[in-house]
Structure formats: C-alpha cells, structure tokens
Amino acid sequence: MTTELQSAEPAIPAGDGGLVRVRLDLAYDGTDFSGWAKQPARRTVCGVLEEAISRVLRREITLTVAGRTDAGVHATGQVAHLDLPAEYDVPGLPRRLARLLPADVRVYAARVLTPDFDARFSALRRHYEYRVGTAPYGVPPLDARRIVSVPRQLDLAAMNEAAALLLGERDFAAFCKRREGATTVRELQRLEWRAESEHVLVAAVSADAFCHSMVRSLVGALLAVGEGRKPVGWPAELLRSSERANGVTVAPAHGLVLVRVDYPADADLAARAEITRNVRVVPGCR
C-alpha cells in the first residue's frame, strides 16, 4: 500500500490506527548533495532520505526539516520529523536505515514526541559554525571538504567588533537571496569569531531562523572587514538597504555546518509553532 503522510500539522493521536509524530536527528556531508530540498534529476539530502525511509517502511513518507541547507552545506545536528503508524519500531529505524543510506548521510536517533512537535515551526533557534583556514599553504587535505582556505592574516578583533553591530532583530534583506512571500526579518542572537587552532578560525552563528544564504553572506562581509578591505561599520550600514547588497560576497558553502537546533519544552511546542508562522515586521520598517 502506498500512502503519503502529510506532516505539516500535528499528528493524529496514536491508537485505533492513528499516527505518532517522530523526530529524526541526522547528519550529512553536503559536498555531493544539491542541498536539502528535493529537485528533479538532482541528488538531495531529502530525496535520499525519503527514498530510504520509504523502502524500509514500505510506504511513501514526507519529511519536514528544521532548516533547508544549500548545496554543499553540511550538518551534524539537523532535525526532521515525519508521521508514522503507532505500531512501527521507531527506535530501531536508524539501524535499519544504516543498511540503505549512503556513507555521506546518517540518521543517528529516532524517537516519538508529542503530536505538536514540528521540526521547522517549533524551533527556537538554529546554530551554525563556519570554518576558515588561514595557513599560507592552504587547508590540510582531510579538512578540505569542511574548511575554506583564506591564506592571509585576518583581524579577529575587527571581525568581532563588526559582528556585534549586527545582533538583534533586524531586516537582513541586504544579506539574503529574496524568496517570494518570505520575510527577511530575523533575530540574530549570536555572531562571534574564535580561534579554534593556530590556523583555523570559527564563526559561531545563532538565530531564530535564517533566510536564504544569510549566514554565508554575513561571513563574507565580515571576512572583508578582517582582510582590511572594508571598515568595521560597513556590514551594519548595509542593514539600511531593503534589497540584497551587491558588494557582499557569499562565502563558499563547504565551510558551513548546521550544528544544533533548539526546541522549547513539550508544553510550549504548539504556541511556539503559532508564533513562528506569523510574519514578523520590525517597527518602522516596510
């Protein structure tokens, strides 16, 4: 039997053939994927996962994800959900999927949650990390798929000073690829650089949500400051624009990793999802 399970709304309570809401925690190397979202004739994370899970369960399923990553972007803490009949062995799903999934994607946990859990709309915040290698010889071969080579001295203090001016709830239209009907208002909660080792810098970036290419655009703007090509106040000045800024270079995808997604307590999941669905507008802005 082939049945498509719609998972955008709360699951029907278990019992008498009802469904349960299942959370999947997963990781992937995005190098050879054309992003998360399914696309015709392209290898995507969602496409590979839905095909494998449908084979294991012998029914078509639909996944809802916390954040759709772009082509080449990695994840160690991605979250998705689907709805399944209550009789399935949910905890055993990762072991069964390990036989079918390719080496560059893994589901490492599956568990039943309250029907109000929504991987996308219930999320409080997403956490990303972006790695840059500054060694003059480039990036070591085993790190080349996850660290971007910027073989020059970067001013870490200037980059953090510029980053601090971007925090808060703002319209990040200058740093986003606009999508029809989508808001570019986001609450940027953390943006700071640290030295992970002698030749590797890491940007930690957290927000309630991110619009298309936002993290890589922010990184690109801050790298321009770190290299001395732009003044400290330049990235913040771009926030005045209601359109994407032409002067911002989008940093390469392979340095970016989705590392964690935060959710509220079960009792607050439905309320959080309702808040997230509302379009946010900064007072005084369009």
Automatic annotation (TrEMBL):
The molecule here is called tRNA pseudouridine synthase A
Recorded family membership: Belongs to the tRNA pseudouridine synthase TruA family.
Q: Name one GO molecular function term.
A: RNA binding
Which ranges of the sequence are coiled-coil? Answer: none
Domain named Pseudouridine synthase I TruA alpha/beta is located at 27-107, 162-264
- Which residues catalyse the reaction? D70 (nucleophile)
> What would be one Pfam family of this protein?
PseudoU_synth_1
Listed under subunit, the entry gives: Homodimer.
GO process terms (BP): tRNA pseudouridine synthesis
Reactions listed under catalytic activity: uridine(38/39/40) in tRNA = pseudouridine(38/39/40) in tRNA
Kindly give the InterPro entries that the UniProt entry links to this protein. PsdUridine_synth_cat_dom_sf (IPR020103), PsdUridine_synth_TruA (IPR001406), PsdUridine_synth_TruA_a/b_dom (IPR020097), PsdUridine_synth_TruA_C (IPR020095), TruA/RsuA/RluB/E/F_N (IPR020094)
EC number of this enzyme:
5.4.99.12
Gene of origin? truA
Per the UniProt record, the source organism is Crossiella cryophila
Amino-acid positions noted as binding substrate in the UniProt annotation, renumbered to this chain: Y128
- Task of the protein: Formation of pseudouridine at positions 38, 39 and 40 in the anticodon stem and loop of transfer RNAs.
Please indicate if the UniProt record lists Zinc as a keyword.
Answer: no
Q: Which domain of life is it from?
A: Bacteria
Q: Keyword set for this entry?
A: Isomerase, tRNA processing
